[in-house]
Amino acid sequence: SCSSEKVKRVTSPSRGICEWLLTILSLFFIILTFPVSVWFCMKIVREYERAIVFRLGRLLPGRPRGPGLFFFLPCLDTYHKVDRRLKTLEIPFHEVVTKDMVTMEIDAVCYYRMENASLLLTSVANLSSTVQLLVQTTMKRLLAHRSFSEILLERKSIGQEMKVSPCGGGQLWGRSSGSVNHVRLPAELQQSLAVEAEAQRQAKVIAAEGEKAASESLKMAAEILASSPAAVQLHYLHMLQCLSAEKPSTILLPFINGKGVLCNQNKKIVSE
């Protein structure tokens, strides 16, 4: 894989004659001063740590040391411990442009863990800044393909995509995942959305008041028609006149008492 090739290139330096000579002399000196010198050549690495050993400024080949005791040469070697526990990084608010061209500010939280301590120590100078920029770039790329409403409703899925999405060089030395915490809109957009929401609310109120007024008018009309049979007949004749003006292909006649007859004071007006 790309990470293993990178590790080989970093951790396989060629040793010169001078380095071999100094190493042999250091070992000989440790043997002469044994057992006092052994207390200066042993170090303890905790379970969640790994020690990266450099000899004369060059990274020693092999896996990082630890956990437990490891041996090094005090005169030639230096070591650095790398914490492999899960770490949390808060990503500050930064601007993101959505698919529907809405500019908003979001903040997030990132969880990351170191996997390749050797490559991390030799290739990354400022880990927190690197992870922060990496997460911000990934979030901008993912959110650019979503609308504003989708971002509000799909925060969990966005966090999952941030976890599995490729992060460039970040995948070589560790793993990271993130989630969106807060979404903050510009003041102008907040005001326009508030005005739109208020307009929708007023429209619903006006529609409800109109339905109420219409229902009251229908109730009054029904009471008038119920109290005067002649009014029903006049309304029916008015409907027939309107239908005939529009040249319909079908005319519907009401049935009263099972007969196709509409009577007014025992006088036949319309019959089958």
UniProtKB/TrEMBL annotation:
Pfam families: Band_7. It is found in: Membrane. SUPFAM superfamilies: Band 7/SPFH domain (SSF117892). GO terms for cellular component: cytoplasmic side of plasma membrane. Keywords: Membrane, Transmembrane, Transmembrane helix. SMART domains: PHB (SM00244). InterPro entries: Band-7_stomatin-like, Band_7, Band_7/SPFH_dom_sf, Stomatin_HflK_fam. It comes from the Eukaryota. Residues 40-197 form the Band domain. The chain crosses the membrane at residues 20-42. Plays a role in the regulation of glomerular permeability, acting probably as a linker between the plasma membrane and the cytoskeleton. PANTHER family: BAND 7 PROTEIN-RELATED, PODOCIN. Belongs to the band 7/mec-2 family. This is Podocin. It comes from Chelonoidis abingdonii.
